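G., the chain you wanted modeled:
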Amino acid sequence: MMWHVIHLADLLLWLFMAASVAYVLLFAVASLFTPKKWKRAVQAGAVSTHTFLVLIPAYKEDKVIRATVSNFLAQDYPQDNYRLVVISDRMQADTNQWLAAQPVELLTPTFDKSSKAKALQYAMSQMGGAFDYVVILDADNHVDRDFLSNLSSACSEGHDTIQCHRVAKNDDNEVALLDGVSEEINNTLFRKAHNNVGLSAALIGSGMCFGWQWFRDNVCKLDSAVEDRELEALLLLQGRFVKYEEGILVKDEKVSSGHTFQRQRLRWMTGQMQSFRRMLPNIPRALLTGNIDYIDKTIQQMLIPRSILLTVVPLMAVILTCLNPLWSLKWWGLLAALCAAVYVAIPAPLRTCRLFSKVGALPRLTGYMLKNLLQIDMGNKDFIHTTHDK
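Predicted structure as tokens:
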């Protein structure tokens, strides 16, 4: 009787894990396809006159905001065609004084409870005039001089919602390296591969570009600490497509300590659970209208984090090999599929000996993820700030 119970539990756990692995493998394969061409190409030599409102919410970002602003002000785009706005929330007086002396618009709101959504809402409420597009960057993001020029060209192709390619700005230790590679895997699976098969790309919180009118009408609806997931749900529910621009880079600082990694992932995991709960009631409507993008995004909220998969699946394979080698075969097969999917999803230039030598850090990082499972509060809307370790 006991062995029947163990066998049933083993099978149910395998099916639970296999669903997430199958999703990852499916889109890893899809990333190898030739991307579908969307809209018409811009005519050679065409000069764009798009105007951009660039918003940088900055909560206690004194360590990085000066370098970010200086970096952005080096744009080769006509200065009359963009406005850079920094929403300074609880930053030091000397930082605000420096910002006030730069060719940027400085906003200094005071919130009882801070959040990125509130900062964006405040900024939009203060903006006079109108722009063609709104761009959102994080306070530690750096971009190339031709960032706005390339973004304008992409907008000229007919895309009004764009997610740029966020890459790691640093890989100075094993946590930062693995964090950066994890993000590149997400870029492959949830952005590149999705666009390849005609599905909408996932938003990521920064390096995002929205049509002015749409963003102004919808930013007021945000009320959680995971504004990117809310924006994405609103877009997909309205049938709007998110284009991933792999060639437009946004350099993002990766976390460098285990404590910061845990806090960041707690925010992400809480947001994932909250998003699933919010999105689930709209599934009948999505099914009736054939909104595949929305259905796919809801499924994404149910996926098991890869770090947990990469730890639990091999662990179960070893345990079942000791208990019953025949039962273990399905786990070894699942592990092979998972490893193949992750390998394909990692961009070729990152498949280095240095990366694979850091795999030993995965169990420790997974421990942080598992600990977070005990701390998820489905009703929590508090903003969890990702601090800079340097």
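The longest helix spans residues 2-30.

Shout if anything looks off.
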